[in-house]
Amino acid sequence: MVAPVVTTTRSPRPDWLKVRLPSGDDYFRLKSTMRSLNLHTVCEEARCPNVAECWGQGTATFMILGDVCTRSCGFCAVKTGLPQILDRDEPERVAKAVEALALSHAVITSVNRDELPDGGAAIFAETIEAVRRRNSETNIEVLIPDFKGFRASLETILAAKPQILNHNIETVPRLYKHVRPGANFAQSVELLERAKTIAPDIISKTGLMVGFGESLDEVEDVMRELVVKARVDVFTIGQYLQPTREHLPIDRYVHPDEFDALARIGREIGFRHVEAGPLVRSSYHAANQVP
């Protein structure tokens, strides 16, 4: 395997990656709601650059199953370790938060819980059902882990009928061992393919980051496989940003014009919707991606 090209020092962020500091009534209202209900968000745990914009608009991505992940991906700021016991009241608290924030679109993700027989799929399903009981008009999007390829876990989540099922590819196959140790590219594509086979009416979604050392041809090949083989509907692509010096270095900053080109390619290949840009993350503008 060819190792990715890496840099040894951080270069200054270009102007197109500058973000504003969190502020505003909606931001602090959302933060207060999350703390009062003892909930986690991937926006905070993964140090998302869009937290000011999204929270300022009253949107956030709930992170269930705790805040400790059993994996250690090279790009992710979520802490790794031995997770705590399952919080059985968490689904209902997420539902209360969705109600309090009057969300029309709720995104629910999780850490990896590889120590659990079902990877936490039952809690995902319970959370979907709890949100729907309290908020019947809310669209529900889930961003799920790979569950180590177990079909039964995927079926558990699909049976709860979220409107969108998202599972991120994250990078191109050549870089998987560096970016997603413990994961498998083919297994992730198979999960997306299987989801579309089991529940063809549910919108499927995936995304990746650029800036690890991948080539444009590699990204295009991945997009084609996701459309042709897995029949994915929605695709997101954004710039990798190094959370700390202990994480994978940035190979390069991709110019916005290149993201525009990738978006055009994605639409030509056949995605129903492509969200592409330096600051795009998997849940960015998620409410606008429901046809």
> What is Rg?
18 Å
Spans with pLDDT under 50 lasting ≥5 residues? 1-9
* β-strand amount: 5-15%
What is the count of helical runs? 10
> Class, according to the CATH hierarchy?
Alpha Beta
Shape by Cα distribution: globular
Mean pLDDT: 85
CATH architecture: Alpha-Beta Barrel
The end-to-end span amounts to 40 Å
User: What is the H/E order?
Assistant: HEHHEHEHEHEHHEHEHE
Q: CATH superfamily, called what?
A: Aldolase class I
Explained architecture:
By secondary structure, the protein is α/β, with parallel strands linked by helices. It has one domain (22-289): Alpha-Beta Barrel (TIM Barrel), CATH 3.20.20. Helix content is 35%, strand content 13%. It is built from ten helices and eight strands. It has helices at residues 25-36, 42-45, 51-56, 90-101, 121-134, 151-159, 176-179, 185-198, 216-228, 256-269, and strands spanning 40-41, 61-64, 105-110, 139-143, 164-166, 203-210, 234-239, 273-276. An eight-stranded mixed beta sheet has the order 1-2-3-4-5-6-7-8. Helix 10 links the parallel strand 7 and strand 8. It is globular, with a radius of gyration of 18 Å. It starts with 24 loop residues before the first helix and ends in a 15-residue tail after the last strand. Mean pLDDT is 85; it is low at 1-9.
Topology diagram in text:
Elements: H1 25-36, E1 40-41, H2 42-45, H3 51-56, E2 61-64, H4 90-101, E3 105-110, H5 121-134, E4 139-143, H6 151-159, E5 164-166, H7 176-179, H8 185-198, E6 203-210, H9 216-228, E7 234-239, H10 256-269, E8 273-276
Parallel strand pairs: 2-3, 3-4, 4-5, 5-6, 6-7, 7-8
Antiparallel strand pairs: 1-2
Helix pairs in contact: 4-5, 5-6, 6-8, 9-10
